[in-house]
């Protein structure tokens, strides 16, 4: 019992030694010095961190990317999107393609003619391709930038107005294609004719960036059928007057120009792989990025119940 009392007194004395006035083995002065040291230490760390962030912010422009020369060319994306870029449906079963038409309908809502015409911050920049529209510098001195109008009706057969299934019910599916946004990027029409596919050679591309689709695999040649393109002025490309883009803060009402692609005669009950590319002098392709300036998609149109 005596040993137990001595043991109890030992830890109690360590917790508070009334003779030496020590708490956990240290006097008040010692604890104060330790506290002061860590306050200064962590204060210095915080100051270094805040100073580093502030120095970094000084190198960043509020509206323009600092190292835009390192940005890759824009990606080419399409709606509807699907897992593994595979679009499979049965023309006799609406449930198999309902998700695709729902996706396209939702995407095109912001392009509705009524919404575009009612927006006072959107200009009519012509029904045909024009050159770039320079809306000033990338700063807030001139306020919010105006945008060019792009009407949903430009997509004609693929607008979803007359055919709300976007051709899927007939086995003639549509894709809605756009170039992804890059601040201050100005796509340049192609001047190197040798790099173009045979279908585009001999054509001129004044004020627009052409797009072209074809079979990805040799064995699919002859199975794709006619491909129709619907864009501004009926052209298969992206007009230049919609560029450059000034960013979300300066260009809140901006909408990319679209091109609708309709595959009118796909061979049914077979898997077909199609590649679409956009062509321009400052648009490159990367084997590691399947959407940089291009995309490929697999179509399987089933007709059997």
Automatic annotation (TrEMBL):
The record gives the membrane topology as: Single-pass type II membrane protein
Write down the InterPro entries for this protein, in alphabetical order.
Na/K_ATPase_sub_beta, Na/K_ATPase_sub_beta_sf
The cellular component terms of Gene Ontology attached to this UniProt record, alphabetical and capped at eight, are:
sodium:potassium-exchanging ATPase complex
| Keyword annotations of the record | Cell membrane, Disulfide bond, Glycoprotein, Ion transport, Membrane, Potassium, Potassium transport, Signal-anchor, Sodium, Sodium transport, Sodium/potassium transport, Transmembrane, Transmembrane helix, Transport
The subcellular localization recorded is: Cell membrane; Membrane
Q: What is its main location?
A: membrane
Q: What does this protein do?
A: This is the non-catalytic component of the active enzyme, which catalyzes the hydrolysis of ATP coupled with the exchange of Na(+) and K(+) ions across the plasma membrane. The beta subunit regulates, through assembly of alpha/beta heterodimers, the number of sodium pumps transported to the plasma membrane.
**Subunit composition and interactions:** The sodium/potassium-transporting ATPase is composed of a catalytic alpha subunit, an auxiliary non-catalytic beta subunit and an additional regulatory subunit.
Q: Write down what this protein is called.
A: Sodium/potassium-transporting ATPase subunit beta
> Which source organism does the UniProt entry give?
Poecilia latipinna (sailfin molly)
């Amino acid at each position: 019992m005596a040993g137990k009392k001595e043991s109890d007194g030992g830890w109690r004395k360590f917790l508070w030694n009334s003779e030496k006035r020590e708490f956990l083995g240290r006097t008040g002065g010692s604890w104060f010095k330790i506290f002061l040291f860590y306050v200064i230490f962590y204060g210095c760390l915080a100051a270094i961190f805040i100073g580093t962030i502030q120095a970094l912010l000084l190198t960043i422009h509020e509206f323009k990317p600092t190292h835009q020369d390192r940005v890759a060319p824009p990606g080419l994306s399409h709606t509807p999107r699907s897992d593994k870029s595979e679009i499979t449906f049965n023309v006799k079963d609406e449930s198999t393609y309902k998700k695709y038409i729902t996706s396209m309908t939702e995407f095109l809502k912001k392009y509705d003619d009524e919404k575009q015409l009612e927006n006072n911050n959107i200009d009519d920049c012509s029904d045909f391709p024009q050159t770039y529209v320079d809306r000033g510098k990338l700063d807030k001195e001139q306020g919010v930038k105006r945008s060019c109008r792009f009407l949903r009706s430009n997509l004609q057969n693929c607008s979803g107005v007359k055919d709300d299934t976007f051709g899927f019910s007939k086995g003639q599916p549509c894709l809605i294609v756009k170039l992804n946004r890059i601040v201050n990027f100005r796509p340049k029409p192609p001047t190197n004719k040798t790099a173009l596919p045979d279908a585009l050679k001999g054509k001129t591309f004044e004020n627009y960036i052409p797009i072209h689709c074809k079979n990805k695999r040799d064995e699919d040649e002859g199975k794709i059928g006619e491909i129709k393109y619907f864009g501004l002025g009926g052209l298969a490309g992206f007009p230049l007057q919609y560029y450059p883009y000034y960013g979300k803060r300066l260009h809140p009402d901006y909408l990319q120009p679209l091109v609708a692609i309709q595959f009118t005669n796909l061979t049914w009950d077979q898997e077909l792989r199609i590649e679409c590319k956009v062509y321009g002098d400052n648009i490159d392709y990367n084997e590691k990025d399947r959407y940089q300036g291009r995309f490929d998609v697999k179509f399987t149109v089933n007709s059997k119940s």
